[in-house]
């Protein structure tokens, strides 16, 4: 689950091992405002975790039960999974992007993604 949005509007994004991504409005948590069934080809994706880069509301990465990291879009011409990386030997338990620098003159590492898995590894990835 991730809270994403701008200074004035926030959404809650949730995923489940059934392959469904839900977008929730914080003002209306009774039911999702949008749903997206995530697939890898024709097969459902069992998602364990998600991560967004700071200030991003559309593109995200997904950690799956089969050890792959997937890139996806929530909106646009082709919402859903658009790239898959076989990354770990077991389910991915967490994903986290490096935060944006606090000061403008600091080095930017926001392209770095950390992943952890039940295969007992922690991996650092670069989106560049």
From TrEMBL:
Presence of keyword Repeat: yes
Pfam families cross-referenced by the UniProt entry: WD40
Subcellular location, record wording: Cytoplasm
Keyword Membrane assigned: no
Gene3D superfamilies: YVTN repeat-like/Quinoprotein amine dehydrogenase (2.130.10.10)
GO molecular function, one term: dynein light chain binding
Any one annotated GO CC term: cytoplasm
WD repeat segments: 85-128
PROSITE patterns reported for this sequence: WD_REPEATS_2, WD_REPEATS_REGION
Biological processes per GO annotation: transport along microtubule
Entries under InterPro entries matching the protein: Dynein_IC, WD40/YVTN_repeat-like_dom_sf, WD40_repeat_dom_sf, WD40_rpt
Keyword entries, A-Z: Cytoplasm, Repeat, WD repeat
UniProt protein name: Cytoplasmic dynein intermediate chain
Organism this protein belongs to: Cystoisospora suis
Upper taxonomic lineage: Eukaryota, Sar, Alveolata, Apicomplexa, Conoidasida
């Amino acid at each position: 689950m991730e809270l994403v949005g701008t200074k004035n509007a926030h959404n809650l994004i949730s995923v489940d091992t059934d392959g469904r991504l839900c977008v929730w409005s914080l003002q209306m948590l009774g039911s999702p405002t949008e749903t997206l069934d995530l697939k890898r080809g024709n097969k459902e994706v069992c998602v364990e975790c998600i991560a967004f880069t700071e200030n991003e509301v559309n593109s995200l990465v997904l950690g799956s039960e089969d050890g792959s990291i997937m890139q996806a879009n929530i909106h646009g011409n082709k919402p859903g999974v658009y790239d898959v990386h076989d990354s770990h030997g077991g389910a991915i338990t967490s994903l986290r992007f490096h935060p944006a620098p606090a000061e403008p003159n600091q080095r930017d590492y926001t392209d770095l993604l950390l992943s952890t898995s039940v295969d007992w590894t922690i991996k650092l990835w670069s989106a560049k």
